[in-house]
Protein: CoA transferase
Organism: Mycolicibacterium moriokaense
Amino acid sequence: MSQAGPLAGIRILEVGVMLAGPYATMLLADLGAEVIKIEPPGGEISRQVGDSYFASINRNKQSIVLDLRSDEGRERLGELVANSHALLVNMKPSAIKRLGLTYDALRQFNDRIVCVALTGFGLNGGDNPAFDYVIQAATGVAAMTGNPDDPPTLPGYSSADNSTGLAAALGLLAQIVSGRGGQVDVSLRDVMLSQLNYRASAYLNDGAAPQRYPYGAHSYYVPAQLFLTADGFLALFITHDAFWKSFAAEAGIEGFTTMAERAARREEVLAVVAAALATDTAKGWEARLRPLGIPSAAVRTLPEALEETPEVIVTAGDFRLVGSPIHIDGYDPEYRPAPRIDEHASSTGQSS
């Protein structure tokens, strides 16, 4: 029999919109937390995007409808806060403050409540629109992505929203563990700048601005990029000399034995590697290099990746979804479907 989840007994309230906030609380719900999704009359806006979208970030939750602009709604919120460990909200800062969703406003009901504000630029950073793609543009991510002669580009998924959801979940748990209530402030801008760690450090300390290379090549390691093969693209990531020695032997390449030499002679190295890789397919090279411990992978589509990893797919109600990425010995999450709007109006708010 599976153990209880590591977060069993933890109650978290969510006033979430679209992706970042709901993703954060879903991860916590997958780990056993009781997550109560507080929705406005008519439901949270992501319900309008589509059933599969809503299901993908709202499984394992409960739903109640509260009009937080009304006296009745605020009173009900206070009752829920009194019996909860945390509240996570992602809205504009002005809306968070206006609706009384901060620690200062809610501590009267529970001075140990942890209030997490997930915003674009910080709880005191103003209300400028802060959608995922806007943040990627504003923090330099788009400018450093793509081939040198092409326009800036964006990843094919919501990297800023998802990353900020992870950071918000971490901040929420850290403050619960501390045993103190308080305000946690997490912004999309700060998370994305934090994730540019070594890129930012290179500029701040050495004045080295990020430079784009063809095929997404790494700025330090050579060869570490995509390569066109006889059929498909291969991602090859040679980070140290032992990897290079094994790869060069398999590919029939001589010379360039040190990391420093490969970096200094980047174009020469890339030319000989590209010529070697063109003699076999991407999947052929993957099959040859992986047994040697060399980091490599043929570029796959998402459908291909999912077909090859059925173990990550779970069922929650009528939907097949990617399950929790956090695996804990002895605990197998129960995947319940995303709630119907206001489904748990009569069953929430009691003491845990």
Remarks:
- The CA atoms of residues 253 and 272 lie 7 Å apart.
